[in-house]
């Protein structure tokens, strides 16, 4: 079916819900490790505490993709019911996670939060392919990246902004500061409101052949076999993109889980205070702990703020390509390759920068992030059956979560440990991984994936 060419605001409306999703991801990615450290986690244990994020993605996204492919409501459409359910659950989890009284509760909240965000996120990817003509696919995915960039930058700066407004960064042992609690509450509100905006401003196309759709939906107990068959028969482009995704997402998982301990320690020289080093029955030690902990919390605000710059630069990347791809085609392969290598350089420079220069590292990383959020999906959407778009987007998520699972289960500690015990070595490994991902783009040779090919 030839789809109507959509205008800017129509594409903006259908993508706006990603603002909330990215508020959730940015607060999770920028500050969960800080919460874990505040609750007493050792820096070497942090990657494993993050295992919830990739595992829930591995389980949830293929299931939600499969279910949304087989859903249709004349009022709510195909993808929007999942946006709404995920938004409600995510907002509740976001609000309560900084109130966790113990490390295991915070880790449990991360499971709930990440699963809920995935319920909303996966159908958003499929919605772009559902709604847009193939000639607008790159434009649509880049538009999502623009909104994701806005969300990343604003959400990453929330604890710093709240602190600047006078809310305290000081807190007792094992208690998350009020500045973080208020930031997460704001994120929960934005998450829900932005999803509701997309739900009520966007319509969806019904299935092209309703009778065939109903017959497919009536078939029972085919989820496992359908997933297995489609994994076995995935297009070659999808497999090649999977190699690129592996190294890309290993790098970014390393950043999300280890940037706070690495950068507060190496760049700001204010590592998280270790409880065992203080006699908390002694008033002098209590005061010393408070001073060190407040310094760590403020440095964490600064790390989060600097990290938010990667959202800002990905937004600039997306804005440039929104205007360019609305009129012309791009060579997706070489754009993605160059972007990933630039991002890798940003990670490598963290070894030598000052606190004032750290934001420039994240500026380079944002170029890679902007490309990761758009180019692989644009290449993939040109290579799969439109009737199975939700399922294939869910299966494609395997190439995102498997490297994260490997990283969480010891991959980060093992590889960075080859360079030494310093936490900053994890950022070096992230940089090398992104550069390898960039070079793997040479594997992509299919013309339809590299650039939109109009039919005669």
TrEMBL record:
InterPro entries on file: MFS, MFS_trans_sf
The entry's keywords: Membrane, Transmembrane, Transmembrane helix, Transport
Transmembrane segments: 12-36, 48-68, 80-97, 103-121, 141-162, 182-200, 241-259, 303-323, 335-354, 360-380, 392-412, 424-444
UniProt subcellular location: Membrane
Topology of this chain in the membrane: Multi-pass membrane protein
GO molecular function: transmembrane transporter activity
GO CC annotation: membrane
The keyword Cytoplasm appears for this protein: no
Keyword Transport found: yes
Pfam families to which the protein is assigned, alphabetical: MFS_1
PANTHER family listed in its UniProt record: SOLUTE CARRIER FAMILY 45 MEMBER 3 ISOFORM X1 (PTHR19432:SF35), SUGAR TRANSPORTER (PTHR19432)
Name by which UniProt lists this protein: Maltose/moltooligosaccharide transporter
Protein's organism: Winogradskyella eximia
Biological classification of the source: Bacteria, Pseudomonadati, Bacteroidota, Flavobacteriia, Flavobacteriales
């Amino acid at each position: 079916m030839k789809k109507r060419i959509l205008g800017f605001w129509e594409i903006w409306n259908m993508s706006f819900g990603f603002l909330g999703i990215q508020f959730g991801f940015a607060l999770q990615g920028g500050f969960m490790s800080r919460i874990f450290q505040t609750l007493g986690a050792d820096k070497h244990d942090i990657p494993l505490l993050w295992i919830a994020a990739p595992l829930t993605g591995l389980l949830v996204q293929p299931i939600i993709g499969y279910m949304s492919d087989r859903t249709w409501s004349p009022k709510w459409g195909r993808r929007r019911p999942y946006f709404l359910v995920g938004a409600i659950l995510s907002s509740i989890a976001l609000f309560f996670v900084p109130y966790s009284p113990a490390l295991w509760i915070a880790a449990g909240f991360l499971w709930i939060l990440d699963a809920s965000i995935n319920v909303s996120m996966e159908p958003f990817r499929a919605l772009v392919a559902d709604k847009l003509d193939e000639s607008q696919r790159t434009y649509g995915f880049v538009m999502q990246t623009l909104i994701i960039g806005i969300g990343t930058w604003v959400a990453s700066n929330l604890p710093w902004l709240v602190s600047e407004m006078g809310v305290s960064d000081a807190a007792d042992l094992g208690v998350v500061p009020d500045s973080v609690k208020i930031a997460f509450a704001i994120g929960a509100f934005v998450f829900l409101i932005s999803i509701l905006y997309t739900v009520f401003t966007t319509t969806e196309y019904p299935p092209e052949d309703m009778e065939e759709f109903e017959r497919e939906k009536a078939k029972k107990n085919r989820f496992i076999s359908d997933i297995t068959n489609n994994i076995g028969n995935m297009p070659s482009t999808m497999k090649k993109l999977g190699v690129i995704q592996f190294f890309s997402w290993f790098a970014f998982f390393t950043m999300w889980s280890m940037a706070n301990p690495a950068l507060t320690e190496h760049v700001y020289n204010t590592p998280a205070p270790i409880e065992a080093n203080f006699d908390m029955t002694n008033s002098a030690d209590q005061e010393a702990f408070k001073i060190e902990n407040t310094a760590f919390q403020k440095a964490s605000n600064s790390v989060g703020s600097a990290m938010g710059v990667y959202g800002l630069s990905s937004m600039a990347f997306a804005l440039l390509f929104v205007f360019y791809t609305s009129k012309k085609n791009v060579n997706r392969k070489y754009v993605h390759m160059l972007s990933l290598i630039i991002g890798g350089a940003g990670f490598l420079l963290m070894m030598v920068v000052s606190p004032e220069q750290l934001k420039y590292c994240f500026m380079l990383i944002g170029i890679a992030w902007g490309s990761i959020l758009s180019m692989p999906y644009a290449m993939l959407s040109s290579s799969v059956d439109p009737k199975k778009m939700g399922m294939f987007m869910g299966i494609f998520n395997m190439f995102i979560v498997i490297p994260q699972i490997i990283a969480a289960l010891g991959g980060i500690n093992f590889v960075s440990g080859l360079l030494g015990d310093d936490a900053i070595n994890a950022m070096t490994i992230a940089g090398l991984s992104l550069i390898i991902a960039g070079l793997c783009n040479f594997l992509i040779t299919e013309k339809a994936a590299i650039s939109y090919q109009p039919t005669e």
